Amino acid sequence: MRADAQRNYARLLAVAEEEIALNGADASLEQIARVAGVGSGTVRRHFPNRHALLAAVFRDRVENLCAHARERVGRPDTRAALLEWLSAVTTSAATIRGLAMALNRDKAADAEHGHCATTQLAEAGEPLVRQAAEVLAPGVTITDLIALITGIALATEDHPDPAAEANRLLGLAVTGLSPLDGRIRRPEPASGAS
Amino acid sequence: MRADAQRNYARLLAVAEEEIALNGADASLEQIARVAGVGSGTVRRHFPNRHALLAAVFRDRVENLCAHARERVGRPDTRAALLEWLSAVTTSAATIRGLAMALNRDKAADAEHGHCATTQLAEAGEPLVRQAAEVLAPGVTITDLIALITGIALATEDHPDPAAEANRLLGLAVTGLSPLDGRIRRPEPASGAS
DNA sequence: TGCTAAACGGCGGGGGTCTCCGTATCGTAC
DNA sequence: GTACGATACGGAGACCCCCGCCGTTTAGCA
């Protein structure tokens, strides 16, 4: 890769990050080119489509989350290990503008490209789910959890405090919105009352 | 309202519904105008912005859901009443293309316009939540439930069977992904096994 | 220092949104 | 039945964006 290409690539990545933080996942590519001081063709050469740009911008963040997951595998308290990681993912997805949408989108383009962000996250988180299977509701997969998290992040996008709200909703989903179900009982059957 | 205006309004609504079903919430307004056989100005006169169009297109659906909620108020099994309604909302949000996104977007523009779809839904569903408070996790509000549902619907948008998947995720969130929490216990501690 | 492949920039086509205004049409009053 | 005013219509124009393409510049090597 030529030196000027490297420069432009780095510069574009930095500008894109800012621009996406400012205007969300569908920030203007032209605008990014303009701010970076390069032609629009250069953007498209480095990143053939928006998906590629998003993937590149969020790569580090996603890898951090993956690492975060890996270092939690094998912990004695499997439930806490999983929940902490889920909370971390939720916080990132809710805080970093555009990340949730990026994750949501590439689920669609997942089949073709192979190693998208969601797949990476899923692979990294799967061991945590497996080792916590005992304390998980039957049928829960890592894919479900990621879907739920990205959904929550999308839904809390324009909340005053997205991270807090998203984590609160995640907590509710984890312990159950209405856990009573025959299989699972409430703490006190509360004799009588309405 | 003049007769031709009424005709165009109805026609636009019908075309918009199809077009949104086909291309999602950000279907082209120009395209809608073209298919309806009117000028683009006419679209923008009847619906100043995309939000207004979406609101109009989904008005009936949302009102149905509201009615659905109202007729469930007062039922003996408050939990079932609420859960059935939540499931109905989830199915609609997941099935009707663009609805989830519309619900998600107008939460933002809610403050200014006053009576958006989400507010309507919230007002209609609130009694169901109140009367089921006993069997709900503490702190759960109707707003939370709607946020969660729209999130789930957004996240399952491009699944082969969105309604089924969305309802499954909703079910998991209702009974709890990992209900064990001190307050709530699992059915069988499952002696041994993997 | 010269050459070549790689990277650059920006033009042109297609499409979308939004505003505005001249014109056609409806509904009514006579 | 006609004439008129209000109302709605249609589309042109300005602006932005995405995308593909190609002539030109430049980095890196011999």
Report on this model:
The structure is a homodimer of 194-residue chains. With 194 residues, the first copy, chain A, is mainly α. Chain A folds into two domains: 48 residues, Arc Repressor Mutant, subunit A (Orthogonal Bundle), CATH 1.10.10; 126 residues, Tetracycline Repressor, domain 2, CATH 1.10.357.10. The first copy, chain A, contains ten helices and no strands. In chain A, α1 crosses α2 and α4 packs across α6. The longest helix of chain A has 21 residues. Chain A is elongated. The C terminus of chain A is likely disordered. Chains A and B meet through α5, α9 and α10 of A and α5, α9 and α10 of B. Chain A binds a DNA duplex (30 and 30 nucleotides) through α1, α2 and α3.
What's the helix and strand layout?
The structure is a homodimer of 194-residue chains.
Chain A: H1 3-23, H2 29-36, H3 40-46, H4 50-70, H5 78-95, H6 99-106, H7 110-113, H8 117-131, H9 142-155, H10 162-175
Helix pairs in contact in A: 1-2, 1-4, 4-5, 4-6, 4-8, 5-8, 5-9, 5-10, 6-9, 9-10
Chain A binds a DNA duplex (30 and 30 nucleotides) through helix 1, helix 2 and helix 3.
Shape of chain A: elongated
* CATH homologous superfamily descriptor of the largest domain in chain A: Tetracycline Repressor, domain 2
Please tell me how large the radius of gyration of chain A is. 20 Å
- Residue runs with pLDDT of under 50 for 5 or more positions of chain A: 182-194
Helicity level of chain A: 55-70%
- Percent in strands of chain A: under 5%
Mean pLDDT of chain A: 92
